[in-house]
Amino acid sequence: MHHITAHVVGLAIPVGVIRRPQDHNGVVDDVITTVSALQPTDADVAEACAVSAAVAAILDGWGMEGAVDLALFVGRRGETFGTKSGRNVTAEIRAAIDVVEDRLITSGTEALPSVPRLPYVGSVPRGMAYAFAHRDAERAAREGRRDNEDERLAGALAAALSAADQPHTCSGSPEARPPVGLVEELVRLRNATSARLSKARRS
Questions:
Q1: Whole-model pTM?
Q2: Which of 90, 97, 99, 131 has the least C-beta neighbours within 10 A?
Q3: Which long-range contacts (C-beta less than 8 Å, at least 24 apart) are formed by 181-188?
Q4: Per-residue pLDDT tens for 153-176?
């Protein structure tokens, strides 16, 4: 299960880099194309769609709240594809985010130093909840420093989303910290790709 999920996440991120967040159908189509060789379940497709949508939204300048909302919307579309698994990924994401959101409201802060106990959910919903809670790449990455493959994947995903959202939170000296420039390059690449696709459609 973890092996496939890790591949799904790895394949989903480039889709989010290339596609604009408003292109819901494009995200879903590209996800299905990229993960089809894995013989995915509906949960795999939903997780990939959610990750792609979140990445696309964050690179477009959306806040973490908007990125999660889009991940839920596009994830629900993805759930209609793949073999049936019995999981409801978007319900898992919503349940995990609700726990974090309640704690944020109670604390009156924009980020949490630690994540409250979450319901039993998969590594992708958990990773999104970690990113939503921390808004900090370094703190999010610490969630993956456990002897558990699912937690390591969740921490890696959370760190990636947090780094895209808040590049200055990556550890290291400014000289050894490329994510700010990397994110800017990814945005330029995505914008250029989008422009080329639009031009191709018109011709």
A1: 0.82
A2: 99
A3: 183/59, 186/17, 186/59, 187/59, 187/60
A4: 888 899 889 988 988 887 653 433
